[in-house]
Specification:
The complex is a heterodimer.
Chain A lengths: L2 H10 L17 E3 L6 E3 H6 L15 H8 L6 E3 L4 E2 L11 H12 L5 E8 L2 E8 L10 H16 L4 E7 L7 H20 L4 E10 H4 L10 E2 L5 E2 L3 H8 L10 H6 L5 E2 L2 H14 L11
Parallel strand pairs in A: 6-7, 7-8, 8-9, 8-10, 9-11
Antiparallel strand pairs in A: 1-2, 3-5, 5-6
Helix pairs in contact in A: 5-6
Chain B lengths: L10 H20 L4 H20 L3 H8 L7 H8 L1 E5 L12 E8 L2 E8 L5 H7 L6 H16 L4 E7 L6 H5 L2 H12 L6 E10 H5 L6 E5 L3 E3 L3 H9 L5 H7 L4 H6 L5 E3 L10 H20 L3 H13 L4 E3 L4 E2 L4
Parallel strand pairs in B: 3-4, 4-5, 5-6, 5-7, 6-8
Antiparallel strand pairs in B: 1-2, 2-3, 9-10
The chains are: A alpha/beta, B alpha/beta.
């Protein structure tokens, strides 16, 4: 398709004159950076780890893309892929929880909102969990809690360092108190991993809030974050209501948390793999002999 | 009779109580024997109260749980604790009044007691921040729990908070981190921990002192993942649907017992704990002593392992590989 054809196509469409917000999510060849409005060629964007070339905005990426960016090619071995959610409360708001689950499962091809597994970074073995924001806002229900807990226990048993990539709105309300209790369950498993003197690093990506912030996101030996990621306990709106005053512009960003001492280092996504490898090496992780790659 | 703070569903009782009061006055003035009538009416009132309180909806239970005269952490401590010494401060520059703690004795047993503390009136509520603790409050709790761990004092926690404080300063000081660290560190404790939801248990702010060997709950207490108001405005896009959300979220003692979250639901007098606080104190004291006796026999390793197993079993998942569905406690 030539550039001219592309423009012609667009004119036929409904967004003449304005590029809609949803272009970021759409599948066209071209997209627009929601931050700087620069029109970008999608393949260029992907080649740059979905970071905008002109303003450095980190576009949201899914768990699959995330794994491809971090793990040695072909090294990721998923665990507990068949664990799937139930509807323990028979929950219904305007729609049933069962419906919402089916919809998320159909649109993502995932059973629930986290992928866990073992992988290597520069041949150093590691346990990794990746939350996927597309699945009901990355919310943490029983399956997310169980899969992460199993991964942490396995990391402890096999003496592996652990990386959890956080992207979550918090606890999944549709599972009620069972989802709140996942915070405690995972924290308990992390206590054992820590007691075994193993390295745990959470990477906080946009957004990391609520119950995830109040549990495993803040329990890292080292806490990493992506630039400008929203990280917080309470929602901005809630705080504005209680305070009735204006909040700082950079409130609850990764930079703000680093300033206040809760993030060790902010790592641009393009540097992530390299930084993780360095940190693993600095903590005594050894590369495996290249066996059957 | 002193003016009572009445909840909406208690109104049908008012008429009966007024009648009783009128007859009493009549009897004082006229020396007519009305004891028979009085007894009848009082029995009727008691029965009505019992009926009403046995049929409370989850939304109504929240009102009982938030009743301004419901016994609070410090009330319970006064009721069943001797030699009580309150201990202040997080050793980081603050002393949160919304989360209090200290050491005392129950019977022959020295224990550490901590809990959320709401105020009785507006003035006290401002000082206590409505029982919403700051990061400093959670750090103070952890400092006290570490102290108990060193001196082998069992830990009793009392949960009664709408949630951890949501504010600019709380975010700056790391509300998430403070709660997270408590969750992790409470798994390390070498002493028995018993947590009781005495009023409302609001989300992470409740869990921040809620990792325990036994989790008890009063009959009209509630424990929620998110306040029904917040849940309604997010999922229903309408805060007025809070009563529906309260029912859907399964927040009452019996619900949480069947989900394997709580270990025991403690009965309340008809009319709720605020109706007969001393009776509530006796119920709680008896339960705590019974559970402490049970836990006393465990070694440190057994205690920690069973605490881990308790939380490890929470949640419901479908796992085709193990052909096991969920793990209710």
């Amino acid at each position: 398709m030539s550039l001219f054809d592309w423009f012609a196509d667009r004119r036929k469409g409904q967004f003449v004159g304005k590029v809609s917000q949803e272009t970021e999510e759409s599948d066209g060849l071209w997209g627009k950076c929601p931050e700087c409005s620069q029109v970008v060629y999608r393949k260029d964007l992907q080649a740059n780890a979905s970071v905008c070339n002109s303003c450095g905005h980190h576009h949201r990426i899914n768990s699959e893309e995330r794994i491809a960016l971090i793990a040695d090619q072909g090294s990721f071995k998923p665990l507990d892929r068949n664990l799937s959610p139930t509807d323990p409360l028979g929950f219904k708001d305007r729609r049933t929880y069962a419906d919402r689950l089916r919809e998320s499962q159909a649109s993502t091809g995932m059973k629930d909102g986290v992928v866990t597994g073992l992988c290597q970074i520069e041949n150093m073995p590691m346990a990794m969990a990746v939350m996927d924001f597309r699945f009901m806002g990355g919310s943490m229900g029983s399956v997310v809690g169980e899969k992460i807990t199993r991964l942490v226990e396995r990391a402890t048993a096999q003496r592996l360092p652990l990386l959890i990539i956080c992207a979550s709105g918090g606890a999944r309300m549709q599972e009620g108190m069972l989802s709140l209790m996942q915070m405690a369950k995972i924290s308990g498993a992390l206590e054992r991993h820590r007691e075994a003197e193993l390295l745990y690093m959470p990477l906080l990506t946009h957004p990391t809030t609520g119950g995830v912030t109040a549990s495993f996101a803040m329990l890292g030996d080292l806490i990493l974050a992506e630039p400008k990621a929203l990280i917080g306990f309470a929602g901005r709106r809630v705080i504005e209501q209680t305070l009735r005053e204006k909040l700082p512009d950079n409130f609850q960003t990764a930079e703000y948390l680093q300033e206040h001492g809760f993030v060790d280092t902010i790592v641009p996504r393009t540097q992530l793999r390299k930084t993780l490898a360095s940190l693993l090496r600095l903590h005594g992780c050894k590369a495996k002999k290249a066996a059957g790659r | 009779m002193a003016r009572r703070y009445l909840l909406e569903f208690e109104k049908p009782l008012v008429e009966l109580e007024q009648q009783i009061e009128q007859i009493r006055e009549l009897a004082r003035d006229s020396e007519v024997d009305v004891s028979q009538q009085l007894l009848q009416l009082e029995t009727l009132a008691a029965r009505r109260r019992e009926e009403i309180f046995q049929a409370l909806t989850p939304a109504e239970k929240i009102q009982v749980a938030r009743h301004p005269h419901r016994p609070s952490t410090l009330d319970f401590i006064q009721m069943f604790c001797d030699d009580w010494v309150e201990l202040h401060g997080d050793r980081r520059g603050g002393d949160d009044q919304a989360l209090v703690g200290g050491i005392g004795r129950i019977g022959e047993r020295p224990v550490l007691l901590i809990g959320h503390q709401k105020g009785r009136d507006t003035k006290e509520n401002v000082a206590r921040n409505f029982g919403m603790a700051t990061p400093g409050g959670y750090r103070k709790a952890l400092r006290l729990m570490d102290h108990a761990d060193r001196f082998r004092l069992p830990i009793l926690t009392f949960i009664d908070t709408p949630g951890a404080y949501a504010g600019l300063l709380a975010e700056e000081q790391g509300q998430g981190e403070a709660i997270a660290v408590n969750l992790r560190e409470m798994f390390r404790l070498r002493v028995p921990v018993i947590a009781t939801v005495i009023g409302e248990g609001g989300s992470g702010g409740a869990l921040g002192i809620g990792v325990a060997d036994r989790l008890l709950m009063f009959e009209h207490s509630v424990y929620t993942v998110a306040s029904p108001e917040a849940c309604a405005s997010i999922l229903w896009r309408d805060a007025a649907k809070a009563p529906e959300a309260a029912a859907a979220l399964k927040i009452t003692g019996p619900d949480l017992l069947s989900l394997g979250v709580v270990d025991e639901v403690l009965p309340e007098p008809a009319g709720g704990n605020n109706w007969a606080p001393l009776q509530a104190g006796e119920v709680l004291r008896e339960a705590i002593e019974r559970h402490l006796d049970e836990l006393r026999g465990l070694s440190i390793n057994q205690l920690r392992e069973s605490r881990y197993r308790k939380f490890r079993a929470m949640g419901r998942v479908l796992d085709p590989s193990s052909s096991e569905t969920g793990l209710p406690a």
